[in-house]
Amino acid sequence: MLKYILTFLISMVPIVELRGGIPIGVTMGVKWYYAVPICMIGNMIPVPFIFFFARKILEWGKDKKFIGKFFTWCLEKGHHGGEKLKAKAGKGMFFALLLFVGIPLPGTGAWTGTLAASLLDLDFKKSILAVTLGVILAAVIITAATLLGCSAFSAVK
User: Fold this and answer.
1) Each residue of 99-130: pLDDT tens digit?
2) Where are the transmembrane segments (predicted)?
């Protein structure tokens, strides 16, 4: 039971998300067909909170003594990433957000994509749908890579 809880919690962590949750879960012995939905749910739970509250918290903390620099950096990074995404996407913002979340590269994912959507004042429902579909895409890519990596590792033994 602990390995399922850890898999779930790992997928909620920023930066790591399900990109780390699925391989770690499978490595701990969670079957991939259990790890995928567990990680997808864990990855999506913070999304509405990020959309509605992260911006307010970051703006509140940007002028505080100890946390100000980090909060300012987060706001600038989110705004810069969002503007860059918006410039490239034009009218295809929904698909750009989906791909931004879905293609597992460093600095992308549900947390960053949702923060960018919030900072850009995008529509909540469309943003959540794009992020959800992006998480599904990331889960497919990471699961395939994990299973290929595990089978290659098994072949070497």
Assistant:
1) 999 999 888 899 989 988 998 889 999 999 99
2) 34-54, 94-116, 128-156
